TrEMBL record:
<dbReference type="InterPro" id="IPR016181">
    <property type="entry name" value="Acyl_CoA_acyltransferase"/>
</dbReference>
<protein>
    <submittedName>
        <fullName>GNAT family N-acetyltransferase</fullName>
    </submittedName>
</protein>
<keyword id="KW-0808">Transferase</keyword>
<feature type="domain" description="N-acetyltransferase">
    <location>
        <begin position="21"/>
        <end position="177"/>
    </location>
</feature>
<dbReference type="InterPro" id="IPR051908">
    <property type="entry name" value="Ribosomal_N-acetyltransferase"/>
</dbReference>
<dbReference type="GO" id="GO:1990189">
    <property type="term" value="F:protein N-terminal-serine acetyltransferase activity"/>
</dbReference>
<dbReference type="InterPro" id="IPR000182">
    <property type="entry name" value="GNAT_dom"/>
</dbReference>
<dbReference type="GO" id="GO:0008999">
    <property type="term" value="F:protein-N-terminal-alanine acetyltransferase activity"/>
</dbReference>
<dbReference type="GO" id="GO:0005737">
    <property type="term" value="C:cytoplasm"/>
</dbReference>
<dbReference type="Pfam" id="PF13302">
    <property type="entry name" value="Acetyltransf_3"/>
</dbReference>
Length: 185
C-alpha cells in the first residue's frame, strides 16, 4: 500500500490495526455530521468494530479488490477514502470518502480525491472513476464538481438512510478526460 504526501502535513496512508482507537474516536466525535449520510455509523459502536473494518479493508486490498486509506493531518486521522470495489474487467472503480467534522471546509478531501484519481488512472491503469453522493449532501457533491467530474444522472431512491430513501447523484470521470483536466486543477 502506498504512502502519498498531499501537501504540508497531509498524507494518505493505509489504516493499520493500531489505528482502530483513533478511527473509532474520529467517528464518534463526527457522528452528528456523518450519521445523516453514512448509515454504517450505526454499526460502528466500538474500537473492535473499527478493528474489523480495518481488517476487512486490508483483506480486500490483499485480494486486489479495493483500496482504503486514512487521510492524515500530521499525526491525526482526518478521514477515510477508498475505492469500494475495483472492477478489473471494466477497469473502473467507485470512490467513497468521509471526513471528520473538525476537518471539513478546508479542501482536504479534494486533495485526497485528486490523489486517488491520479492513482487510479496512472498506477492502476483504470479507465473510469465514479463517485455517488446523496443528492441533498451538498458538501459531498461539491468534491466531484470541483474536480470536473461529469454529472451523469440521478439514481432514484438508491440508498436507505435513517429518514427514508435518498436519490444518488452519479458523477463520472474517464481517464482521457482526467488527462485533459488535471493540469488545470
Amino acid at each position: 500500500m502506498f504512502v502519498f504526501p498531499l501537501k504540508d502535513s497531509l498524507i494518505l496512508k493505509p489504516l493499520r490495526s493500531g489505528h482502530a482507537p483513533e478511527l473509532f474516536e474520529l467517528i464518534e466525535h463526527s457522528r452528528p455530521t456523518l450519521r445523516p449520510w453514512m448509515p454504517w455509523t450505526a454499526q460502528m459502536q466500538s474500537t473492535a468494530d473499527a478493528e474489523e473494518f480495518i481488517a476487512t479493508a486490508a483483506r480486500l486490498y490483499a485480494d486486489n479488490d479495493a483500496v482504503t486509506a486514512g487521510l492524515w493531518e500530521g499525526e491525526r486521522l482526518a478521514g477515510v477514502i477508498g475505492f469500494h470495489e475495483i472492477n478489473w474487467r471494466s477497469r473502473s472503480a467507485q470512490i467513497g470518502y468521509w471526513l471528520g467534522a473538525s476537518f471539513e471546509g478546508r479542501g482536504i478531501m479534494s486533495l485526497a480525491v485528486r490523489a486517488f484519481v491520479d492513482y487510479a488512472f496512472i498506477e492502476l491503469d483504470l479507465n473510469r472513476i465514479e463517485i455517488r453522493c446523496a443528492t441533498p449532501n451538498r458538501r459531498s457533491r461539491a468534491v466531484p464538481e470541483r474536480m470536473g467530474f461529469v454529472l451523469e444522472g440521478v439514481l432514484r431512491q438508491a440508498e436507505k438512510l435513517d429518514d427514508g430513501y435518498v436519490d444518488h447523484a452519479v458523477y463520472g470521470m474517464l481517464s482521457e478526460e482526467w488527462s485533459a483536466k488535471r493540469p488545470l486543477l
